[in-house]
Design a protein that fits this description.
Layout: H1 20-36, H2 51-64, E1 81-84, H3 90-95, E2 115-119, H4 122-135, E3 140-143, E4 163-169, H5 171-176, H6 192-196, E5 200-209, H7 215-222
Parallel strand pairs: 1-2, 1-4, 2-3, 4-5
Helix pairs in contact: 1-4
Length: 233
């Protein structure tokens, strides 16, 4: 990258991980495995880097502490979360107070506001619903293709103006690996920012976890009006 922080990074080489077929196949297999053994909740993405264990305290320190990033009216009881590319819904389960193994974490923090996990793989949505139901946890899961569906379908109820926190754990990575192009001839990742912005309420938080992009590269992708960097490496 050059010295200009607004210069877009070079694109990643396309990969099967950027295709819907890959994820449909993966979650079909994980659904089958879960049906045979309900303790099998599939792959916990980024577990090797402890991503969830890093993001959870980040949320607490920036939302619940004196920083009050989302304002004093947003609390642990009412903060809303939208999880893009939810997969098996594991991150939302953690936010609901379960530990890495899906058991109640007596020492963990439990966020009680509305939670919605969305994915463009219908198999993922079904998988996440089954796991949450087996844990007795109230979380919504819906089919939603970020790059092609209207945001209005998930901007409902109190979140009609956007969600307090929008989570992306690897979804921008996967989109960056797609060779598809949009109606303007751009790689899909080039249109990600404009697709995700309406989902975040004014003053809300977009939290992107990536293994393919550095913190500086993510800033280059997302810099501009409407977004202010508050953390990351």
């Amino acid at each position: 990258m050059g010295s200009n922080p607004l210069t877009r990074p070079n694109h990643l080489e396309p990969s099967p991980l950027g295709t819907k077929e890959y994820w449909d196949s993966l979650y079909t297999t994980e659904l089958h495995n879960h049906s045979a053994d309900t303790s099998d909740v599939g792959t916990i993405w980024f577990s090797d880097s402890g991503a969830e264990n890093k993001v959870l305290p980040f949320l607490s320190s920036h939302i619940l502490s004196d920083k009050k990033l989302l304002g004093p009216e947003t609390t642990q009881q009412n903060c809303s979360f939208l999880d893009l590319g939810t997969g098996n819904g594991h991150f939302l389960l953690r936010l609901r107070g379960l530990d890495e193994d899906g058991e109640v974490d007596e020492e963990g923090e439990k966020w009680e506001g509305r939670m919605l996990g969305v994915d463009y793989s219908a198999q993922s949505v079904e998988f996440a619903r089954r796991i949450a139901a087996s844990k007795g946890v109230e979380i919504e899961f819906e089919y939603f293709d970020l790059m092609s569906d209207s945001p209005s379908s998930i901007l409902t109820n109190d979140e009609s103006g956007g969600w307090d926190v929008v989570l992306d754990k690897g979804t921008f990575d996967a989109i960056s690996l797609s060779e598809e192009r949009d109606g303007q001839g751009r790689r899909l990742c080039e249109g990600y920012r404009e697709k995700v912005m309406p989902l975040v309420r004014e003053g809300g938080l977009l939290l992107v976890t990536s293994c393919n992009w550095t913190g500086e590269e993510l800033r280059a992708w997302f810099a501009g009006a409407g977004l202010r960097v508050v953390g990351g490496g």
